[in-house]
Amino acid sequence: MNARPTTPAQQALIEGIKKRIPDDQLESCIEELKKNDKNVNFLDEKGMAPLHYAIIDGKPSSIKILLEAGANPDFQDKAGNSALHHAMKALRDDLVSLFLNDDPDEKSKLGLNNAAINVDTQLKNNDGDTPLHLYAKRGDHAGNQLLKKHGNRFPISNLYIQNEKQETPLHCAISYDNMYFFTFYIDAFSHNYFNQVDIKNSAILHGPHGDNLVHTAIRRLTNTSLKDNEARTQTMLHLLAGVAPSMFNEKTEATRLSSGYTPAELLVKLKITNSEISYIANHPDLIRQLTFSQRQTLGALQGPLNNLRDENAKLTTNVVNLSKDNVELKEQLATMNSKLDKLTQLLEQQLQLAARSSKNENNTSPVSSPRPSMFK
Q1: What CATH number was assigned to the domain covering residues 1-120?
Q2: Mean pLDDT of the chain
Q3: Confidence of residue 361 (pLDDT cuts 50, 70, 90)
Q4: Where are the beta strands (DSSP E) in 178-337?
Q5: pLDDT, tens digit (0-9, with 9 covering 90-100), for 76-92
Q6: pTM of the full structure
Q7: Which residue ranges make up each domain of the chain?
Q8: Which residue stretches of 101-228 are H helix?
């Protein structure tokens, strides 16, 4: 859509939204606009529509008034962003729900007379991003409650849409550290969605640089701005090995200088030496053979173990900085160390059991090199 000069009535409506004028005054601005046969779907000189300003401002009542006045949620600004794109970018799940909730009773509770707001969830902006791409890029800001509540509005086919960088929403979730989004679709033991996701879809297998999800997870290790890179990458690879170990044999795009890289080869190329991650990349089939209960135990232990390590480090620092006669703090540290030792021992036992189970089930000789510990 092209930006164009606005009429006085159009400008008055936009300024009213920006200034958060009372609802009755906003309705009067809309009535004045419609006297001249003008509707609320227009772009100002900056290429924005009234509904987009209302979302950025974050005033739900203004959004409701505009929707009732005929504002089109799929109307795009000069950057190609729709109302749903702006709601995703604003990190406002309440505003996103305003557009996605298709339950008439819920719509009525929100104050909307029009119970059926049709929103195109596959609409792309100028960067090729759908609203789901933007949600995947949000990081761990709001969890996966929105997906649980409105997942039916995002068909599985949305996961195969590539943006201009050839990224699918799943690639974006990995690159932007959105573990909630990633595990919602990939964690085979928490959700049923993985049965529907075609992990071998060409879009997922051939993202940027020809990367599949495993390559993308390994590349994120070079992004030092992401928190806890190695632990989270290990979790992602563990889940991917459980869902589709064959992805670990796929190569990146061939170039003039190379024939492409498998995930294990990419680790070497990027000079990443984490032994646990290297083990998963080289033995995805063994990881997949963990039993359901063993996977649940490993998944349940990993979070508490990381939390205990963080608390242990903080308490250790406090003990050093405070007086040596702080008996209470020393007792807390001792208790925390005891819990950490027990949890680590339990995890090691589970891994040993998993290794023995895999060996017995496959009736194969053990790997030549001992399996490194999944956790230090």
Answers
A1: 1.25.40.20
A2: 82
A3: low
A4: none
A5: 999 999 999 999 988 78
A6: 0.73
A7: 1-120, 123-288, 304-362
A8: 104-109, 131-136, 145-150, 169-175, 179-186, 202-205, 213-219
